[in-house]
Amino acid sequence: MRITYERVGETTAVEDLDISAFTGDSVGRGLVSPDWYLIAVEAGFNLWRGGAGNAIENLSISVDDQKPRRALGTAAPAPCFAALSVEEAWTGGFRAVVEVTNVGDSPVQGWTLDWTFPGGQHVERTSAGQVTQSGSSVRVVGPAREGVLEPGGSTSFDVVGSGVSPGIVSITCTPA
């Protein structure tokens, strides 16, 4: 199985990329089992005609053995999961869709999402419930009265933000 995450926007370098957001997203979507091993990480560019000067000059992957390791397969699965996908990006802003899914065995009535934007992005407007932002930290409280997410059910909302498109954002979903 191959799962691909693609950066949105141009960059000349990436440093200190924490891939736990990618693996957490893959586990949360049910694409991989939490007890599987990651065996490869690739980086590169898409080829195109006239793409002179394309090169990867240095790629290194290291694992910080000082960090405590957690047993991924031992915790109970989260009852809800959320993912942010950038749909459009323009100079100074972006539009993303956040999808909240009930991955548990019982109904979820209301939820709270917490995430941290990686580069100073700011929520300008959203079609979700109550949104608060302090610095890079965002909290969205979903409407508990407007419906129940049945097991396997999902809902989504738009987020319009300012700043550079955030790419992959790790979201914590907590049922109300």
TrEMBL record:
Q: Which GO terms describe its molecular function?
A: hydrolase activity, hydrolyzing O-glycosyl compounds; polysaccharide binding
Give the GO terms filed under biological process for this record.
Answer: carbohydrate metabolic process
Domain CBM2 residue range list: 73-176
Pfam families from the UniProt entry: CBM_2
Q: Do you know which InterPro entries this protein is assigned to? A: CBD2, CBM2/CBM3_carb-bd_dom_sf, CBM2_carb-bd_dom_sf, GH11/12
Q: Tell me the protein's name.
A: Cellulose binding domain-containing protein
Q: Which organism is it from?
A: Lentzea flaviverrucosa
Read off the lineage from the record: Bacteria, Bacillati, Actinomycetota, Actinomycetes, Pseudonocardiales
